[in-house]
Amino acid sequence: MGYILATLAILNLLFGGISWYYKDRYEDAVKFVDKAAEKARQAEEYAKLLKIESKNNTELLNEKNQLDINHLNATINRMRQQTNSSALSNLPRNTRSPEEICFSREKLDATIQEYRDEVLTLIGKGSSCQINLNTAKDWAEQQKLLFK
């Protein structure tokens, strides 16, 4: 009977030690899973914050771009209004006959006006492209800084 009790005690220690070892390993695994879940939650929150900040930066840059374009358009319109007057000076009163001039003043003036309008259109398009390019560069720089 003594041998049986001794054998049972040894088996109990052996299996108890093994179960204690696996219980400790299980607790380590649970802690690891909990830490990984917490880090995943933090990363998800951080990603949401980055997305919101990126969206806000994009909206701000779009608003600035629109303001710049509006300012450009207003400037171009002011320039057009200033150039609506005749490019040719008035004929002096003592001119004998305006018909002696070898060109039509009205056609020349209309042509010069068209030329001015085309130049202003080109300036407007070029400036608009420059504003859009600068806005795109600013956006890219913001994104680069945000996701660094």
Structure summarized in a few sentences:
It contains two helices and no strands.
List the main descriptive attributes of the protein structure presented here.
single chain; 148 residues; mainly alpha
Describe the structure.
With 148 residues, this protein is an all-alpha fold. The chain has one domain. 83% of the residues lie in helices and 0% in strands. The chain is built from two helices and no strands. It has helices at residues 2-82, 105-146. α1 (2-82) runs antiparallel to α2 (105-146). It is rod-shaped, with a radius of gyration of 41 Å. It starts with a helix and ends with a helix. The relative contact order is 0.09.
| Beta-strand content bin | under 5%
The residue-averaged pLDDT reads 81
What Rg, in angstroms, do the CA atoms define?
Answer: 41 Å
Query: How do the helices and strands follow one another from N- to C-terminus?
Result: HH
Distance between the termini: 73 Å
